[in-house]
């Protein structure tokens, strides 16, 4: 299996579609609901396991977004803040990252 992809937040009803998309790209899929009430450690562990993190900011807590940004910068991991939870936007961002492989570790905000 290839790289590991973490999706934090997004619409619950799309989680299985995010997973299908990631697995079709021969990558391992991780998901965190984006709620950090009593669960920062789990999010930290998932960020450590992942090679890239995607976070739709329309359905993710501000706390989770801040934690992801800090942790990814500290660990030198690429992270993408997506303006919406749409599957098409997620696919676009994932494909862009897969094409670059090893590019910038700065946050990228994509607009729907």
What's the quick description here?
With 112 residues, this protein is of the alpha/beta class. The chain contains four helices and five strands. The termini are far apart.
- Could you list the spans in which at least 5 consecutive residues all have pLDDT below 50? 102-112
User: What is the CATH topology classification name?
Assistant: Rossmann fold
Summed over residues and divided by their number, the pLDDT gives a mean of 87
* Secondary structure: number of strands: 5
Which structural class do you get from the secondary structure elements? alpha/beta
Q: Beta-strand level of the residues, as a percent range?
A: 15-25%
Q: Could you name the CATH class? A: Alpha Beta
What is the assigned CATH homologous superfamily? Response regulator
Topology order in helix (H) and strand (E) letters: EHEHEHEHE
Helix content: 40-55%
What count of structural domains?
A: 1
Radius of gyration over all CA atoms, rounded: 12 Å
Give the biggest sheet. 5 strands, parallel
Largest sheet, spatial ordering of strands: 2-1-3-4-5
In the CATH classification, which architecture applies? 3-Layer(aba) Sandwich
By oligomeric state, this entry counts as: single chain
- The shape is globular
Number of helices: 4
């Amino acid at each position: 299996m290839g790289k590991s992809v973490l999706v934090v937040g997004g619409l619950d009803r799309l989680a299985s579609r995010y997973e299908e998309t990631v697995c079709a790209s021969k990558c391992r899929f991780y998901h965190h609901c984006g709620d950090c009430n009593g669960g920062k450690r789990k999010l930290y562990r998932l960020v450590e396991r992942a090679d890239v993190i995607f976070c739709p900011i329309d359905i993710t807590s501000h706390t989770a977004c801040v934690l992801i940004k800090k942790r990814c910068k500290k660990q030198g991991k690429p992270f993408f803040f997506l303006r919406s939870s749409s599957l098409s936007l997620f696919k676009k961002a994932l494909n862009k990252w897969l094409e670059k492989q090893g590019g910038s570790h700065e946050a990228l905000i994509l607009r729907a």
